[in-house]
Specification:
6-stranded antiparallel β-sheet, 8 strands, 62% helix, 18% strand, elongated, alpha+beta, 10 helices, two-stranded parallel sheet, 474 residues
Length: 474
């Protein structure tokens, strides 16, 4: 429901009539980016592709049923009647004079692959006809055959290895989708804080510009009665122009920040909206140790490294299987019925076979592949340890930066209060003639600078919180 309300609000903004009054909050922006943002759409499509690919790999290890049929016609002819020629024609299904034909049909059930399946069950039937001398003769053959791979170097068959790797690949893509969502949230938060900072800065500089203009009027008035020098007037004019330029810069920064946030939300770049104020959020960790522990449990990169190591372990098992024996069992039962004479003649026979394949010489290819795959498994194990150390270092750095920003806020607040007090003092002294106009204008600039520094420190604190949460995988 919350997401629906958010999307309706954004649609109203896009209409344009409520653009000036609309103010989006952070939660609404996050929901909109996850629901309709371009980055979320790309992540969703990539996940769809991964799922379709996995379904294709799974189908390779499933059952497949194929049907076949054929119609054959043979014409026998000869220029002699030797016994050899007669035997050859009979074997081909023909005769010295006449037309013979046959119909064949079959069903084949396989599991594992379309070619060289792990399991194969075939049922065939053929019916022969002979129309020689206008008499009809029948010959029927029924066959059932089974082929089973017992071992080909991987439990369940090498096609099973493809499915096992596909499962890990899909899980990796799902983790990437989760990571993409986290990155979207982090980017929206940063863009939101950037726009909020631009709003605050514009409001602050508009106030400073008003103060500088008022001071310029004051200096112009006292200059007219020769109580201010030309330098005082020029200084006041420069300060007023500088304040106007700062306002123009802030308007540009706000427009740019709004456009970048709109891009993340899937809104037109020229959308007009504002963002609501947010409180100075506290980090979601009680201590540095708690933050590191959370990061090691939440960071997607560690889970992805584990999946890569497991996938390499499958490659290692396949590599070892290349130097092992393969075992295949085959069996069949055939029934032949010949009804060409008045008395039906049957011929039944069964087959059973065992095929053993053993690599003898491969110039060391299998051993090299095993060594390579084994080394790669070790690489991923080492990579995971390096990731743990890197993540812990990133979190410590983010925690230190956040702590520094807390102290900078406190220092900036003290500086602001100090320069505001100095400004009040200089104003009183200037009114009594004990402080110069230059001292007054300097005090005004110093107070404005201190106010801007305090606002920047507050914004940097919010960005530091976001950086810490990102480092923790939140």
């Amino acid at each position: 429901m919350k997401r629906i309300v958010c999307l309706i609000g954004i649609m109203l903004i896009m209409i344009g009539g409520l653009a000036a009054q609309a103010a989006l909050d952070l939660a609404a922006c996050i929901d909109a980016a996850l629901a309709a943002g371009p980055d979320a759409a790309v992540a969703a499509r990539n996940l769809d592709v991964a799922r379709a690919t996995h379904a294709l790999n799974q189908s390779k290890n499933g059952f497949a049923l194929a049907a076949s049929g054929a119609l054959n016609m043979n014409e026998g002819f000869s220029f002699d009647s030797t016994a050899l020629n007669t035997a050859l024609l009979a074997k081909a299904g023909g005769s010295n004079a006449g037309l013979s034909s046959s119909i064949q049909a079959g069903l084949t059930l396989t599991k594992g692959a379309s070619t060289s399946p792990f399991t194969r069950l075939a049922l065939t039937a053929s019916q022969g006809f002979n129309s020689e001398f206008a008499s009809l003769a029948n010959s029927t053959i029924l066959g059932l055959s089974v082929a089973q791979t017992v071992w080909d170097g991987y439990p369940g068959g090498q096609v099973r290895a493809t499915v096992d790797k596909s499962v890990l690949t899909l899980r990796g893509k799902e983790l990437q989708a989760v990571q993409s969502a986290s990155l979207i949230v982090a980017n929206v938060k940063k863009a939101y804080v950037t726009m909020l900072t631009a709003q605050r800065t514009l409001a602050l500089r508009l106030g400073i510009a008003d103060k500088q203009k008022a001071l310029l009027k004051q200096i112009t008035a006292v200059y007219a009665i020769r109580q201010a020098t030309t330098i005082d007037l020029q200084t006041a004019q420069i300060n007023a122009k500088s304040a106007d330029l700062d306002v123009e810069t802030s308007r540009h920064d706000l427009a740019l920040a709004r456009q970048r946030l709109a891009n993340l939300l899937g809104m037109p770049p020229d959308s007009g909206f504002s963002v609501a104020e947010i409180a100075d959020a506290a980090p979601r960790a009680a201590s540095l140790e708690d933050a590191v522990s959370t990061g090691l449990a939440k960071r997607i990169e560690l889970a992805q490294a584990d999946l890569s190591r497991r996938s390499s372990a499958i490659d290692l098992a396949l590599a070892k299987g290349q130097s092992q024996a393969s075992i295949n069992l085959t069996g069949g039962l055939n029934v032949a019925l010949d009804t060409s004479t008045a008395t039906t003649r049957n011929a039944d026979y069964a087959t059973l076979g065992l095929r053993l394949g053993l690599p003898v010489l491969d110039a060391g290819a299998a051993a090299a592949l095993v060594a390579s795959s084994s080394a790669l498994v070790g690489v991923y194990s080492t990579t995971r340890k390096q990731l743990e150390q890197s993540i812990a270092a990133d979190i410590r750095d983010a925690w230190w930066t956040l702590d520094l920003q807390v102290r900078r806020i406190d220092l900036a607040l003290q500086s602001r209060d100090l320069f505001n007090a100095k400004l009040a003092l200089v104003k009183a002294q200037n009114s009594m003639g004990t402080a110069t106009n230059q001292e007054l204008m300097t005090a005004v600039v110093d107070a404005a600078t201190a106010e801007a520094t305090y606002a920047t420190a507050k914004s940097n604190y919010l960005l530091a919180v976001i950086a810490l949460e990102t480092a923790m995988g939140l």
